[in-house]
Design goal:
The active site is at residue 40. This protein is an alpha/beta fold and 181 residues long. It has helices at 19-29, 39-45, 69-87, 102-111, 126-134, 143-150, 167-178; strands spanning 8-13, 34-38, 57-59, 65-67, 91-96, 117-123, 159-162.
């Protein structure tokens, strides 16, 4: 018998570290139906940030990603909407890149205070992530290296997996930690 699963699973990883792949496979392998949302869905919902400078999301030539108060206000509204989904009984997987590490985790913990949450860290050697990044036309070179450690600083996880391993191995580790196996 499968134990009751936490309604919210947060996967935090750097760009090109394998977090989205783990999230998609986990969504497929979990015994319940979960919506997969997160930072990419939020950014996709914003107006074209390459044409507009007022969304609060900034990309440096070296791959550094920064956000301003305008972005944080919209992000906060996004997370409140997701918290309402979770409170209504919809199980979620959030695929995140917590640019400010532990501070980002604390923001999410406060917004999802009423929701049992399971935290997954997908760590990946910067060189491996950089090689993946170089093959992807939608990435700014340098993002993987910039984010490799900073997204994890101060974050406390229930389980950490290696994004350089075959993704199904990471998913199996998460499922085991959740008690699904």
């Amino acid at each position: 018998m499968t134990p009751a699963l936490p309604p919210l699973i947060v996967i935090n990883s750097a760009s090109s570290a394998g977090g989205t792949t783990v999230a998609r496979l986990l969504q497929k392998d979990l015994p319940d139906v979960r919506l997969l949302l997160g930072v990419d869905a939020f950014i996709d919902a914003l107006p074209d940030w390459t044409a507009r400078g007022d969304v609060g999301l900034h990309f440096g030539a070296d791959g550094e990603v920064t956000v301003d108060a305008t972005y944080r206000e919209r992000e906060d509204a996004w997370y409140r909407a997701l918290a309402a989904l979770a409170a209504s009984g919809q199980a979620l997987i959030l695929d995140e890149v917590l640019l400010d590490g532990g501070k980002g985790q604390e923001r999410l913990r406060a917004l999802f205070a009423e929701t049992d949450t399971f935290w997954v860290g997908v760590r990946c050697d910067a060189e491996v992530a950089e090689a993946r990044e170089a093959k992807r036309p939608d990435r700014i070179i340098g993002m993987a290296r910039d984010q490799a450690e900073r997204v994890h600083e101060g974050v406390v996880y229930d389980v950490v997996v290696d994004g350089a391993l075959p993704p199904q191995e990471s998913v199996d580790t998460v499922l085991d930690a959740l008690g699904v196996f």
